[in-house]
Amino acid sequence: MIMWGTLLSSIEQGLVYGIMALGVYLTFRILDFPDLTVDGSFPLGAAVTAKLIISGVDPIISTLIAVLIGAVAGMITGFLNTKLKIVGLLSGILTMTALYSINLRIMGKANIPLLNQETVLTKIEALGFAGLWQTGIFFLIVIILLKLLIDWFLHTELGLALRATGDNQQMIRSLGVNTDLMIILGLALSNSLVALAGSLVAQYQGFADVGMGIGMIIIGLASVIIGEVVFSTRKIFWATLSVIGGSIVYRLAITTALRLGFAPTDLKIVTSVLVILALAAPTLKEDLKLSLLSDTSS
């Protein structure tokens, strides 16, 4: 029963963090932008939601406001990059650094507990959907809707322009597309998803903490890369699905590592090893294939 509960918890976490991974996928793969704002916009979503909830604001409205403010954070990074001509990597770092102080300012302290507060999840329970699978089903519905919405958007004229901006800025600019606007839009969409994930994680865990965003970009990249290696595909529909699958696989791997005796303090190095293995997998696979061919020919 304990093992089943652990497995269910891992899947739930994989689904809710998968929302953040979808945001990372938009910048990392679609826009080809190394956005480190994620480490700041994730706790931003949690901080805004927690502060509004304890102030008496409806949790659904609180979550939506967090999404909008997350989008603003992404727009600031985009503005620094496109208008002030600051390198993309540094733009994200500057916004992320500023958001640490902003998140503290929003919360008024380093941690806000939500255990006795009404949240989106408690609202679902109040509707009579309480049960072992209720949280997992809710997160599954949310992430599937978001996935389908992203798939649809990326096939619209605006979405195709966004994809083209990531592929070849010079070419798409010559066709009259405002690439600066596309970058700002892409970063806004990405960080709105990241903030949504932070908001839901805070409500799921029962607290918001100023340090909960540390390493989020690595977790997001791990989910994207693991998904690409395990569920190799190029089409948008399957690519976004693989990101969700990669997030679940990542969480299951972390749970397995803990059950094997690794300490929680070891999780960062476990994540690094997982990303290294996922990145090296294609090369190792090709080397193994060449080695086998060489042995066969000889």
From TrEMBL:
Signal sequence, start to end: none
Transmembrane residue ranges: 7-28, 60-80, 87-106, 126-150, 181-204, 210-231, 238-261
Keywords: Cell membrane, Membrane, Transmembrane, Transmembrane helix
Pfam families in the cross-refs: BPD_transp_2
GO cellular component: plasma membrane
MF annotations from Gene Ontology: transmembrane transporter activity
Originating organism: Acetohalobium arabaticum (strain ATCC 49924 / DSM 5501 / Z-7288)
Annotated membrane topology: Multi-pass membrane protein
Main location: membrane
InterPro entries the UniProt entry points to: ABC_transp_permease
Protein name: Inner-membrane translocator
Classification of source organism: Bacteria, Bacillati, Bacillota, Clostridia, Halanaerobiales
Coiled coil spans: none
Compartment(s) where it occurs, according to its Swiss-Prot or TrEMBL record: Cell membrane
